[in-house]
Model the fold of this input.
Amino acid sequence: MAGNELESIDAFMEWVEEHHPNEPEYHQAVRGVATHLIDVVRDNEDYRSARILQRLTEPDRIISFRIVWEDDDGVPQINRGYRVQHSNALGPYKGGLRFDPTVCPAVLKFLAFEQLFKNALTGLNLGAGKGGADFNPKGRSNNEIMRFCQAFMTELARHIGQMTDVPAGDIGVGAREIGFLFGQYKRLENQFTGAITGKSVGAGGSEMRTEATGYGAIYFLEAMLAESGGDIADQRIAISGAGNVALHAAEKAACLGATVITLSNRDGVLYKKDGLSQEDVVTVKKRYGAGDNMSDIASSIDAEFGEGKAPWEYDCDVAIPSATQNELDKEHAQTLVDNGVKTIVEAANMPLTAEAEQVFDDAGITIAPGKAANAGGVAISGLEMSQNRLGRSWSRERMDDELKDIMCNIFDRTREHGEIDGRINYRCGADRAGFDRVAKAVLSFGIM
Ligand code: GLU
Done:
């Protein structure tokens, strides 16, 4: 018999926490989504009786495996790898791989859960998954990274495939790692198929995949500003991170005339009061990629370096957290509000703590949720899969147009589902629009 989980969000979360104990990140992600869906489900007899929302909180399966690889001193190192295959209701499992010491089931489950709604929002046929390993790539040689990737893929290969599960990159997994992973997959299967995305252009990859998440977030911001009569060229933008997403968001924003004042890493903030030029961003990209430290890079482009600081301490109109989950807390949020921030764009996945979100809500600040704003990356991954199946490569111009189109469609769906009492709640809209698509598909398959 169905329980009373849908009575209130707390009752629902009690049920979830009982089934998934000790996984705070997972609880945070589910609570965020369920808050926006519980009324929708309660009011829909089909959804309620089929217990759709409850079913969506349980991943199809979680694979966990040992990875043993040899470091440069010949010492065997042991790590743990995972793949969370959350749902293939809309297509093959799809989502990135993260190599980071913080990787654990709770983190990957939250990411795979978020991916479900994000991938649904793209309008493409993409299921949801996420994986990775508790491996720290920092300080490892190129050969160590290669051996690790090969050992990781030796186990993962049997669980993936172009129509089964298609991983891609995420934190700690960039073009180099994707190359090693795909190389090993190809060797094991003796087949060149699109079982991984984010491959380099010329080796089965798609134009614009590298830029897609960052550029897509800025396209989403443009659409959001247009809604309220704003212009990106008038915005002072603080961005956190110095990875693929942050750098490409900075590049596109600078190109459109915005004043991009910060980038950051664990050491501190690179701050340029009058804004980074496109050339500055290219310099940071090159030098940071080559392993230079942030304060040296800052002085080479006439920027300041705020050691130990966060980008959220500087005056801005738009804040774009682009680093990792829960990077922006309550105090940061309050500082941003006090300094007059107007818009938050989540380019990372779940970058705001629940308390930070509350501060922004209380202050009436608009938030572009990650599921919508950072969906450009996985969308272009989806189109990389299409190109691989067709055996064709589409041009850069075409991919940029596709990306703009998809981001505009995501924006429209999010706005449409998020309009409540004349105001738009984009977070609610993204969850409801994604859920609408997934729930209908799940219902059509019967009880399973
Ligand atoms: N890791 C990215 C994300 O969070 C991309 C996933 C993909 O391309 O499959 O959406």
Remarks:
- The pocket of glutamic acid is lined by residues 94-96, 168, 170, 197, 349, 377-378, 381 (CB under 6 Å).
- The radius of gyration is 21 Å.
- Residues 345 and 368 are 5 Å apart (CA to CA).
- The chain has a mean pLDDT of 97.
